[in-house]
Design brief:
3-stranded antiparallel sheet, about 110 residues, elongated, Arc Repressor Mutant, subunit A, alpha+beta, 3 strands
Amino acid sequence: MARAATTSDAFNAVAEPRRRQILDCLAARERSVGDIVGSLDLEQPSVSKHLWVLRKVGLVRVRRHGRQMFYRTNAEAIRPLHEWTKTFERLWAHQLTRIKACAEAMETKPDHS
Protein backbone atom coordinates (compact mmCIF):
# COMPACT_ATOMS: atom_id res chain seq x y z
CA MET A 1 0.00 0.00 0.00
CA ALA A 2 1.39 3.42 -0.94
CA ARG A 3 2.15 5.87 1.82
CA ALA A 4 0.04 9.02 1.98
CA ALA A 5 1.65 12.29 0.96
CA THR A 6 3.25 14.30 3.75
CA THR A 7 0.93 17.15 2.87
CA SER A 8 -2.23 15.04 3.14
CA ASP A 9 -2.70 15.69 6.88
CA ALA A 10 -0.97 16.75 10.07
CA PHE A 11 -0.20 13.17 11.14
CA ASN A 12 1.76 12.46 7.96
CA ALA A 13 3.53 15.80 8.23
CA VAL A 14 4.79 15.19 11.77
CA ALA A 15 5.99 11.69 10.91
CA GLU A 16 9.25 13.38 9.85
CA PRO A 17 11.49 13.98 12.91
CA ARG A 18 12.89 17.30 11.63
CA ARG A 19 9.38 18.69 11.34
CA ARG A 20 8.75 17.76 14.95
CA GLN A 21 11.99 19.54 15.87
CA ILE A 22 10.79 22.63 14.06
CA LEU A 23 7.44 22.50 15.86
CA ASP A 24 9.29 22.16 19.19
CA CYS A 25 11.40 25.16 18.24
CA LEU A 26 8.28 27.20 17.44
CA ALA A 27 6.34 26.08 20.52
CA ALA A 28 7.56 28.93 22.72
CA ARG A 29 7.45 31.82 20.24
CA GLU A 30 7.35 33.03 16.69
CA ARG A 31 10.68 32.71 14.87
CA SER A 32 12.26 33.67 11.58
CA VAL A 33 13.59 31.03 9.21
CA GLY A 34 17.15 32.15 10.03
CA ASP A 35 16.49 31.79 13.75
CA ILE A 36 15.15 28.26 13.24
CA VAL A 37 18.17 27.37 11.08
CA GLY A 38 20.54 28.64 13.78
CA SER A 39 18.68 26.97 16.65
CA LEU A 40 18.45 23.55 15.02
CA ASP A 41 21.72 23.59 13.07
CA LEU A 42 19.93 22.58 9.87
CA GLU A 43 20.45 23.87 6.35
CA GLN A 44 18.18 26.75 5.30
CA PRO A 45 16.74 24.97 2.22
CA SER A 46 15.81 21.99 4.39
CA VAL A 47 14.12 24.17 7.02
CA SER A 48 12.21 26.06 4.31
CA LYS A 49 11.03 22.80 2.76
CA HIS A 50 9.82 21.47 6.10
CA LEU A 51 8.12 24.76 6.95
CA TRP A 52 6.33 24.62 3.60
CA VAL A 53 4.92 21.18 4.47
CA LEU A 54 3.94 22.29 7.99
CA ARG A 55 2.26 25.37 6.55
CA LYS A 56 0.46 23.36 3.85
CA VAL A 57 -1.20 21.14 6.49
CA GLY A 58 -1.92 24.15 8.70
CA LEU A 59 0.36 23.35 11.64
CA VAL A 60 2.23 26.63 11.31
CA ARG A 61 1.26 30.13 10.26
CA VAL A 62 3.50 32.66 8.60
CA ARG A 63 3.79 36.43 8.89
CA ARG A 64 5.84 38.52 6.51
CA HIS A 65 7.78 41.52 7.82
CA GLY A 66 9.69 43.13 4.99
CA ARG A 67 11.78 40.40 3.43
CA GLN A 68 11.66 38.15 6.47
CA MET A 69 9.14 35.41 7.14
CA PHE A 70 8.15 34.66 10.72
CA TYR A 71 6.56 31.33 11.64
CA ARG A 72 4.48 30.30 14.64
CA THR A 73 2.51 27.22 15.56
CA ASN A 74 -1.21 26.99 14.94
CA ALA A 75 -2.65 25.57 18.15
CA GLU A 76 -6.03 24.73 16.63
CA ALA A 77 -4.42 22.58 13.93
CA ILE A 78 -2.22 20.86 16.52
CA ARG A 79 -5.23 20.00 18.72
CA PRO A 80 -6.15 16.79 16.80
CA LEU A 81 -2.60 15.49 17.32
CA HIS A 82 -2.85 16.23 21.02
CA GLU A 83 -6.31 14.66 21.32
CA TRP A 84 -5.13 11.49 19.59
CA THR A 85 -2.05 11.08 21.79
CA LYS A 86 -4.19 11.67 24.90
CA THR A 87 -6.00 8.42 24.16
CA PHE A 88 -2.78 6.61 25.03
CA GLU A 89 -2.09 8.42 28.32
CA ARG A 90 -4.22 5.94 30.27
CA LEU A 91 -2.37 3.02 28.70
CA TRP A 92 1.03 4.47 29.60
CA ALA A 93 -0.07 5.38 33.11
CA HIS A 94 -1.27 1.79 33.59
CA GLN A 95 2.03 0.39 32.25
CA LEU A 96 4.08 2.65 34.54
CA THR A 97 1.96 1.61 37.53
CA ARG A 98 2.61 -2.06 36.69
CA ILE A 99 6.37 -1.47 36.33
CA LYS A 100 6.45 0.38 39.66
CA ALA A 101 4.53 -2.43 41.40
CA CYS A 102 6.91 -5.03 39.92
CA ALA A 103 9.96 -3.08 41.05
CA GLU A 104 8.56 -2.62 44.54
CA ALA A 105 7.70 -6.32 44.76
CA MET A 106 11.27 -7.22 43.77
CA GLU A 107 12.66 -4.91 46.47
CA THR A 108 10.63 -6.62 49.20
CA LYS A 109 11.58 -10.19 48.19
CA PRO A 110 14.50 -11.63 50.14
CA ASP A 111 17.69 -12.12 48.13
CA HIS A 112 18.54 -15.85 47.91
CA SER A 113 22.01 -15.48 46.36
